[in-house]
Amino acid sequence: MTKALRTLWAEPRPANPPRRVWRDWALLGVAVAASLIEAVLRPDRTWLLAALVVSGVVAVAVLWRRTQPLAAVAVAFGTLIVFDVARIVASDATGLASIALALVLPYALLRWGSGREAVIGLGIILVWVSVTLVAVPTTVPEVVAGYGFFLFSAALGAAIRFHATTRMREIEQAELRQRHELARDLHDTIGHYMSGIVIQAQAGRALAASDPDRALAVLETIEQAATRVLAEMRTIVGVLRVGAEPDLAPQPGLADIERFARAAGTPRIEVDLSDLHDLPAEVSVALYRIAQEALTNTMRHACNVTRVHIDVVGDVDRVRLTVRDDGVPTPAGGARAGYGLVSMRERATLLGGTFHAGPTAGGGWQVEAMLPRVGATS
Questions:
Q1: Is the keyword NADP in the record (predicted)?
Q2: 90, 114, 137 — which closes off a domain?
Q3: In this predicted structure, what is the pLDDT of residue 41?
Q4: Residue 104 has what pLDDT?
Q5: Count of the separate structural domains present in the chain
Q6: Which H helix or E strand runs over 313?
Q7: End-to-end CA distance of the chain
Q8: Does residue 94 belong to any structural domain of this protein?
Q9: Apex CA 205: angle with CA 305 and CA 230, to 5°?
Q10: Domain boundary among 137, 154, 169
Q11: What is the pLDDT of residues 238-260, one digit of tens each?
C-alpha cells in the first residue's frame, strides 16, 4: 500500500496537455451569462454581488484546468470555501447554481495533474464539500450525492487518463517492435550482402596481381551484391517514407534458401529441404533469415571452412533448421557474439520457438532453430 501511494505521489503530469481553444472561451461566456441571468431572476438578493464574484472566479479558473490543474482547483475551491465559511458565520445567503461548473475541475485534476497535485487537489475539494454541506443543511442522501458527484468526476478523469496512458504505451511498444524488426532486417539482409562484399573484395585484392581474370570475376560478383544491397535499401527507405506506397513483393522464404546458397559461391554449401507444404509466411521468412544470418556468420567468423550443410526438416507440429560448418572459429569471433545471434534468437522466440548456437563435438559450428509450424504463438 505504501509503495502504491509513493508511486501515485511521484506520478508526473501527462505530456502535452491540449491548448486552450475557442470552446473554453465559449464555456466561460455561457457560465458568466448564466450567472447574470440567475442573479436578475432570483428573488433572494442577499450577498448577490459576492455570489456573482465567486461564480466568476470559478468560471475563470476553469480556463487553466489543463495547464495548471492544481492552481485552478486551489483558486476555485479556495474561493468557495471562504464564501461558505462566511455564509456559516454571518449569513444564510445562497450561492448561484452556475458554480456547478466546478464539477469539471476534479476531472481535469485527475486527467492532467501530477500525482502530488491530484492528492492535494482532492483534499481541497473534499474540504469544500464538507464545509458547504455544513453551510447548507442537507439530508444523508444529499450528503452522499454531494460527495458522489465530485468523486465521480475525479474517477472519470483518472479512468480516461489511464486509458490514454495505456494507449500511448501500446503505441510506444508497437514502435519499439517495429524498430527491432527493422534492425533485424537491416542486419540480416544488408549485413549479409555487405559481409559478402568485404570477403570478395579481400579475395580480389589477393588475386589482383597473380590472376587478373579471376580478380575481374570477383569484381563482377561484388557489383551484383552491391546492386542487391541498393535494391534492399530502396525497399526499406520506401517503407519508412511517409506516404510512400508499400512494396507488396513477397519476402524471401524457405524455397529461396537454395538460391542464396548458390549465390554465396564458396565454401561449398549443401542444402537439404524437406517437402514442407502450407508453412505460414512468417515461419518461412524466419527460416530463410536465420539460415542467411548463420551463413553470414560462418563466412565472417570461421576459417578453413570447406563445407556448410543446411538442413530443414519438419513434422505436423514443428520445423527444425540446422546449419553446420566444419570451420574453426577465429580467436576474435570464437563465440560469434554480436547482433547476429541476437537477431536469430529473437526471430525464433517471437514465433514461440527455440534457438541454439555453439561449437559441435566434432569441430565446427552449428546453429539450430526449432519453430512451431503454426506460426506465432504469442
A1: no
A2: 137
A3: 82
A4: 93
A5: 2
A6: strand 307-314
A7: 32
A8: yes
A9: 85
A10: 137
A11: 656 555 555 555 567 777 787 77
How does residue 378 score in pLDDT terms, banded at 50, 70 and 90? Answer: very low
User: Long-range contacts: 117-120, Cβ < 8 Å, 24+?
Assistant: 117/13, 117/69, 117/70, 118/8, 118/11, 118/154, 119/8, 119/9, 120/70
Cell of 310: 543446411
Got the DSSP string for 232-272? HHHHHHHHHSTTPPP--SPPP-GGGHHHHHHHH-SSEEEEE
User: Do you know the residue count of the chain?
Assistant: 378
Read off the pTM: 0.56
pLDDT digits (tens, 9 = 90+) for 137-155: 777 787 788 888 888 999 9
Q: Within a domain: residue 179? A: no
Whole-number Å distance between alpha carbons of 182 and 92: 70
- The average confidence (pLDDT) of the chain is 80
Place of cell 454541506: 133
Q: What is the pLDDT of residues 224-238, one digit of tens each?
A: 777 777 777 776 666
The grid cell for 303 is: 576459417
Long-range Cβ contact pairs of 28-34 (< 8 A, separation 24 or more): 28/59, 28/60, 28/62, 28/63, 31/55, 31/58, 31/59, 31/62, 31/98, 31/101, 32/56, 32/59, 34/97, 34/98
Please check whether residue 304 lies inside any domain of the structure. yes
